[in-house]
Amino acid sequence: MNDNNVLLLEERDGVALLTLNRPKAMNSLNFKLLHAIKEQIETLRNNPDIRVVIITGAGQKAFCSGADLKERITLTELQVKEFIYTIRNLFTYIENLNKPVIAGINGVALGGGTELSLASDIRIASTNATMGLTEARLAIIPGAGGTQRLPRLIGRGKAKELIFTGRRVDAKEALEIGMVNKICEPDALIDECKKMANMICETGPIALEQAKFAINYGIETDINTGLAIESHAYWVTIPTKDRLEGLAAFREKRKPVYKGI
Questions:
Q1: pLDDT tens for each residue of 135-161
Q2: Which of 95, 115, 202, 252 is catalytic?
Q3: Residue 82 annotated in active site
Q4: 163 assigned to some structural domain
Q5: Residue 261 maps to a domain
Q6: At 3, is the pLDDT very low, low, confident or very high (cuts 50, 70, 90)?
Q7: Are residues 104 and 159 in the same domain?
Q8: CATH number at residue 228
Q9: Residues 6 or more apart from 170 whose CB is under 8 A from it?
Q10: Separation CA 65–CA 108 (nearest Å)
Q11: Is residue 11 among the annotated active site residues?
Q12: Is the domain of 118 the same as that of 243?
């Protein structure tokens, strides 16, 4: 398998599409792919022309099947710790990216694949998707944020059920329990992700960044602290030219043109 181009990038109309490109390995995560994702996400963070990031997998069989177990079996205990440290920090970096991230789940998303989707802001799955934190079946636990993000998303009881049993859920059940935002036919997945991304691109980029900050950090605190975080985030938007543009566009009955300033 040619493992040279493990990550593909497409940029168009303010949207960056990142495609995990190891289809013969079910888009599993090895060190090379993790480093490639980190490098690209760091570049996108500082690109003002990109408003939304979509992450998906090559082909229709797998979004990401988790860690590359063929690589894992060759690693020493110290290297395994390094891998876990690398993947956990990467997913936290994605979660805290200063722009929205949409996971386009096109098939199997197990272990680290599900954890990658949990680190994203919005999850859209194809009807053939299968998700699950299956690590306990390998006598380990989710190590890239799954034990923390899944309970916060779907509730403690259901998360414990899925993690303790290692059970997989199909797209329909994932939607029912709130694990994904919506589902669609496989052939329509990327179009649905782009439709969502285009709607987001119509809003103010500074407002998006501050709204994401307020949600991510406020949800981890009590309500009063969360409201204080929200207020601080709101104050950041007040002196922006985009806020004035939004008011002007409303008054002039036209679409606003936001520049992130």
A1: 999 999 999 999 999 999 999 999 999
A2: 115
A3: no
A4: yes
A5: no
A6: low
A7: yes
A8: 1.10.12.10
A9: 129, 130
A10: 6
A11: no
A12: no
